């Protein structure tokens, strides 16, 4: 079985450079400050570590966790290049076990969409076990509207100097299956072709809130991206929670 994000792991942050990383990280920092979060935190599903590094630069003691070895390899490289001190660990949110309990956790940019509905409560329970009482937990999901109306049955493609990809999506009413073909230079005018499949699940807000409540969290807010009002056509839902 191929590693998760085997083809895209080293390029994830680069390919997502237009997602508004700076503004997004400032939203997290301000939200955590408003909740009185402590100094020790975990970035779950950290990818290439942008939010881990941003929170570390804001004075937090950070640990980035991801299920993908290539993601973590690039995360460590970028942190070293930028002179940011952070720890990076291989881990799965549905089986999360940190070295010590933390004051807060974030799980940003679709981490929870990769968790099947039947494992959502387990994921939240494991996050709760790794949080101190009263700790903050901020995460997001891509909304059902986004999966069904924006991604479903659409093709996306990008042709850059050092990578080209084709991204096909199929939505079956409960989940979107993403088939991605990646081409990268292999030298001598040749290209390496790799294929990946990703599955993201559509989670209804009431179901997420119910799973949180049953896992030891109170929901402070369910809001749109960066705190915007949560309308029917919101592409992303942010959950701001506290461990009880």
Order of helices and strands: HHEHEHEEHEHEEEEHEE
Would you state the CATH class of the largest domain? Alpha Beta
* Terminal-residue CA separation: 39 Å
CATH architecture of the largest domain, by name, is: 3-Layer(aba) Sandwich
Oligomer: single chain
Can you give the mean pLDDT? 94
Outline the structure in words.
With 244 residues, this protein is α/β, with parallel strands linked by helices. Helix 2 packs across helix 3 (50-57). It is built from 7 helices and 11 strands. The radius of gyration is 18 Å and the shape is globular. The termini are far apart.
Essential attributes:
single chain; 7-stranded mixed sheet; 4-stranded antiparallel sheet; N-terminal domain of TfIIb; alpha/beta; Rossmann fold; 244 residues; 35% strand
Write the layout of secondary structure elements.
Layout: H1 12-15, H2 21-34, E1 40-44, H3 50-57, E2 61-66, H4 69-82, E3 87-90, E4 102-107, H5 120-129, E5 131-142, H6 144-151, E6 155-159, E7 164-171, E8 175-187, E9 190-201, H7 205-213, E10 217-223, E11 236-243
Parallel strand pairs: 1-2, 1-4, 2-3, 4-5
Antiparallel strand pairs: 5-11, 6-7, 7-8, 8-9, 10-11
């Amino acid at each position: 079985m191929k590693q998760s994000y085997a083809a895209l792991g080293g390029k994830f942050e680069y390919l997502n450079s237009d997602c508004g990383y700076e503004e997004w990280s400032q939203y997290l920092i301000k939200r955590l400050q408003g909740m009185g979060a402590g100094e020790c935190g975990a970035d779950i599903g950290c990818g290439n570590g942008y939010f881990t590094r941003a929170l570390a630069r804001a004075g937090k003691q950070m640990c980035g966790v991801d299920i993908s070895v290539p993601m973590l390899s690039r995360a460590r490289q970028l942190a070293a290049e930028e002179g940011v001190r952070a720890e990076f660990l291989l881990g799965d949110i549905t089986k999360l076990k940190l070295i010590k309990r933390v004051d807060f956790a974030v799980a940003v940019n679709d981490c929870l969409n990769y968790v099947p509905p039947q494992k959502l409560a387990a994921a939240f329970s494991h996050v709760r076990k790794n949080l101190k009482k009263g700790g903050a937990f901020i995460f997001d999901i891509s909304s059902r509207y986004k999966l069904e109306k924006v991604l479903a049955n659409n093709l996306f493609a990008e042709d850059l100097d050092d990578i080209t990809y084709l991204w096909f999506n199929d939505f079956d009413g409960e989940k979107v299956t993403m088939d991605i073909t990646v081409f990268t230079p292999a030298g001598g005018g040749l290209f390496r072709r790799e294929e990946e499949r990703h599955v993201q699940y559509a989670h209804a807000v009431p179901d997420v809130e119910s799973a949180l409540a049953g896992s030891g969290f109170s929901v402070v807010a369910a809001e749109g991206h960066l705190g915007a009002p949560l309308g029917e056509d919101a592409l992303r839902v942010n959950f701001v929670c506290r461990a009880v």
